[in-house]
Predict the 3D structure of the following.
Amino acid sequence: MILATNNTTAMPWWFWVIITILAIIGIVLGIWSFLSGFKSSNKINTNNAIEVILATKKYSWKQTDELPETSGLYIMFIGKRYDDKEFFIPIFIDKAQSIKAEVLKIKEQIYSNNKNSIGAEVTTYLLQKGLTATDINFYIVNVSENEIDKTLNEYLDLTKANKRGFKSK
């Protein structure tokens, strides 16, 4: 009795072509996924100016009495971090002759919850997000008297606060 004498494991040539093509595709996908992991850390932040301001001295909800009586720009921001990817950004930027008086006026509007005021918008936002008044912070932008309007427009354009933030009434 003769057993199979030709016991070979040789594969046809087309099998090796398919294995080679799949291996090349796998290596290319692996390199692409490895390199794409580094792209997010190199992303240029377009709102660095806002983050710089939010890193400066902030006046919390309870510290509004400590605000200076100066004129200039002020920012009301709700939350911990500025996230440009959010559709609605909880920010309000405005100029005032007396920053302290304007902030206290906004604070009173939030307490009274008048329907046609920024206070109603802020109160609605706080209720929707489950936040409290202690999450509201105020910042002062140091700018010269001559540059107030120009800087206000720059910050409004930079943050898109007119379209995506609280609107002044």
About this structure: Strands lie at 59-60, 72-78, 91-96, 136-141. The chain has a mean pLDDT of 79. The chain is about 45% helix and 10% strand. The domain at 48-164 is CATH 3.40.1440 (GIY-YIG endonuclease).
